[in-house]
């Protein structure tokens, strides 16, 4: 990974933090997107220690806000002449339906729209750096979920796990459509389920839900193990030409029928473009 530039979201905690540190040790220069200055500076210090020969950078912003998603994309594109890997990983679970300043449901905004908007913002840099990769952290929580085109953001029919599962289904469909649209451009897109991992995930989701997730974490794997597939997809020569796939434990896995629906993937792209005010 010497000489490679990797942009990563959600690296101030959990699997993103472990992955960023491992990739830095492998020689990559990490460019972090974070919202919390204290945690951001801590990880930056770790990265400098992990590999003193490359200087990481950090861009602060809240990925639940459309204006910030766009600003971060533009800011990184202006600062970085090349982006070899983009890792969309920041994600969250919320115990109640919250609307953002854009009137987007918060889970949908962070877990799906931020992936979509940041990827578009870095499109030119990724294409110019080909061969390049996009890695999207999805989840097995997509299982049993289908998108409702009349309530794409699950606002009318909100339940925490439904909104979360649907947002992770969006990650897989987005990856498929991205792979299809950018095929032949030298940029691959893959996604993954990291396993059930003991991170800070769910801690801020509200009282009862945080408690349920906390109890369930007894059965979870460590962030070190959870980061393995993320690091593999970002760095391994084995997957240099693989695109549009869903991985678990560093192997291709088959997501649900709903997650393999190419018509739904194309429609999600159109709907997301409309929401983001972008050309489809
Ligand atoms: N843990 C699991 O069992 C599991 C299973 C399947 C999939 N996943 C997925 O794995 C990914 C990483 O989660 P994790 O388990 O490592 O959880 P985590 O420890 O809670 O880390 C989440 C990361 O996302 C960042 N983030 C959240 N909201 C943000 C916002 N509005 N703006 C900017 N950054 C934001 C957090 O920043 P702060 O440090 O500022 O909070 C943190 O760095 C997520 O996409 C999650 O859906 C996790």
Number of strands: 8
Major sheet: size, sense and barrel closure? Answer: 8 strands, mixed
Strand order across the largest sheet = 3-2-1-4-5-6-7-8
Strand content: 5-15%
Briefly summarize what is shown.
The chain has 280 residues and is α/β, with parallel strands linked by helices. The protein has ten helices and eight strands. Strand 1 (5-9), helix 1 and strand 2 form a beta-alpha-beta unit.
Task: Spell out the blueprint of helices and strands.
Blueprint: E1 5-9, H1 14-25, E2 29-34, H2 37-50, E3 57-60, H3 66-79, E4 85-88, H4 106-121, H5 123-128, E5 132-137, H6 160-181, E6 187-193, H7 207-216, H8 223-226, H9 228-235, E7 246-248, E8 251-253, H10 262-276
Parallel strand pairs: 1-2, 1-4, 2-3, 4-5, 5-6, 6-7
Antiparallel strand pairs: 7-8
Helix pairs in contact: 1-2, 1-9, 3-4, 4-6, 6-10
NADP nicotinamide-adenine-dinucleotide phosphate (NAP) is lined by residues 10, 12-16, 35-36, 39, 62-64, 89-92, 110, 137, 139, 193-194, 196-197, 199-201.
Could you explain the architecture of this structure?
- This protein is of the alpha/beta class.
- Helix content is 43%, strand content 14%.
- The chain is built from ten helices and eight strands.
- The protein has an eight-stranded mixed β-sheet with strand order 3-2-1-4-5-6-7-8, sandwiched between helices.
- α2 links the parallel β2 and β3.
- α4 runs parallel beside α6.
- It is globular and about 50 Å long.
- The structure holds NADP nicotinamide-adenine-dinucleotide phosphate.
- The site of NADP nicotinamide-adenine-dinucleotide phosphate (NAP) has 26 residues, from α1.
